Structures are given as C-alpha cells and as structure tokens.
Amino acid sequence: MSGYLSEERHQIILETLEARGSITVNEMVERFGVSEMTIRRDLDALERRGLLRRVHGGAVLDRGRSYEPPFVARAVENLSAKQQIAKAAVALIENGDSIILDVGTTTYEIARQLVDKQNLTVITPCLQIATLLAENPNIRLILTGGIVRPTELSMVGHLAERALRDFYVDKLFLGAAGVDLEAGLTEYNLEDTLVKQVMIKNAKRVILVADASKFGRIAFTAIAPLSVINALITDEKLDLEWITRLRKLEIEVIVASEKANAKNGILLGEEVIVR
C-alpha cells in the first residue's frame, strides 16, 4: 500500500515535470507503489487544473514561463515549508519595525504569524494580507492602492508603484516565482515585477522568502539580480550546493526547520542560532 496521499503524489508529479518536462505512468507507478489506474486518475486531475498535458503513456509539462498558478492553488503547495519559513521570518521582525510584505503565499503565512508583534507598520500590495491584518490593533496597515489583479488580488499599476516610492522601510519580505544564479529573481508577469522593483529600491534590508521548489526555475520577467538580496530564508530541501554558492555572493542564508523552530531559533546552514 502506498504511503503517499494524493496531494503528495500530485506535488511530486509536478516537481518531476518541472525538472524534466515529462513523465511516464510506469515510472510513477514504481515511484509511488500504486496502480496504473491511480496514476492515470492523478494525471487526469492535474490536467483538468491546467497543470500538465496528458500524452500516450504519461504526461508533459504544459506551462509557459508566463503561466501563473492561481493563488489558492499555490497556497497549499509546500505549505509546511512555507510555515517554517514564515516562523523564521517573524523571528527577524522587531517590535516597532516598518516592513513590506510582498504578494505571495509565503508572505501570507508571515502575516498569519504576526499576532504577537507590537507597534508594527506593514505596507502591502496584497488584498489577502490586508484583509488578514486589518483588525490587528498592534499594526498600522498601509495598502498601496492600484489596479486589482483578479486571480492574484495583488495591487499593480502606477498607483501602487507611486505609493511605494513614498515609503522607506526597515525590511522587505520579498517573494519570487523563480531564483536562478544567472537570471536572478524572476516573476510570472510584468505588472507585479514593476511593483517589486520599487519595493527593493526603498527597503533597508531585502529578505527573500522562497522554498526550495523556486530554485533553478526561471519565470517570464526579470525582477533583479541576486545581488539585491541581503538574506534568504528557505527550507531544508534546498541543496547544499545552492547554499554554498549563495553565500559566496555574500547573501545570508537562513534555513528554517521544525527542529530549529522548536528551539525558538533558526537553522543557519548546519548551526542552530537561538534567538
């Protein structure tokens, strides 16, 4: 009997497709220890969501670089990793800080964990985050305004960019669709990219929050080179070679883990730093 839930199989299937571009039914049967019928149902379900294309004997990736999975679909992907990354991010936030929370499912998890912080100023172009924080009396919330992107509920356009140019913050928690050594930080669409570029210019400290699935991926538009990042918070699945190469670029790499968070700390490489 397979030890994988259907959601876990779906995630691994998509990760394999991202890495290789195609899979076969037979290899997935062997990988998961389930029947061909089960794998075919998995592939059919993912095809209905527009995440792959079924071909004879398997499936191929059916996404262009500008394809952006819906916010609600991304929110459940790698959720545990995102929650651990969020805990490590919140540990870096001091009472009284001014911060920007970028649009994204990982930054949304950061917002969920701000309940114990005091006297924060939070700026965001994300309606989901704004709705979550609107009734918190310890947070001064600033919503950028702008044009609402319906599927993402992010605020884009000249109004959002102009609003962000007027604020200089202590920390920016930045998301990205892809992280690549040569292409740098990339995003699915130009509108969000332009907003991110303004955020980066006006932040004293830029902290990228990205789980391991984002690395080695290149999306449609370039946000900025990796040199704009002061720190990265990621999860334990990120390959050690990536960590080593990022540190050579003088980027602080913080690896969040359940072990470290249980000690009220963060895992930095192989060393737990307790805060």
Give a quick set of tags describing it.
single chain; alpha/beta; Arc Repressor Mutant, subunit A; Rossmann fold; 2 domains; 7-stranded parallel β-sheet; 3-stranded antiparallel β-sheet; 11 helices; globular
In the CATH classification, which architecture of the largest domain applies?
3-Layer(aba) Sandwich
Radius of gyration: 19 Å
Runs in which pLDDT lies below 50 for 5 or more consecutive residues are 261-275
Derived structural class? alpha/beta
Listing every helix as H and every strand as E from the N terminus to the C terminus, the arrangement reads: HEHHEEHHEHEHEEEHEEEHEEEHEHEE
Strand elements, count = 17
Average pLDDT number:
86
| Share in helix | 25-40%
CATH class of the largest domain: Alpha Beta
Number of helices: 11
Kindly report the oligomeric state of this protein. single chain
Shape: globular
Q: How much of the residues is beta strand, in percent?
A: 25-35%
Remind me, CATH topology of the largest domain?
Rossmann fold
Please, how many domains? 2
Main sheet summary: 7 strands, parallel
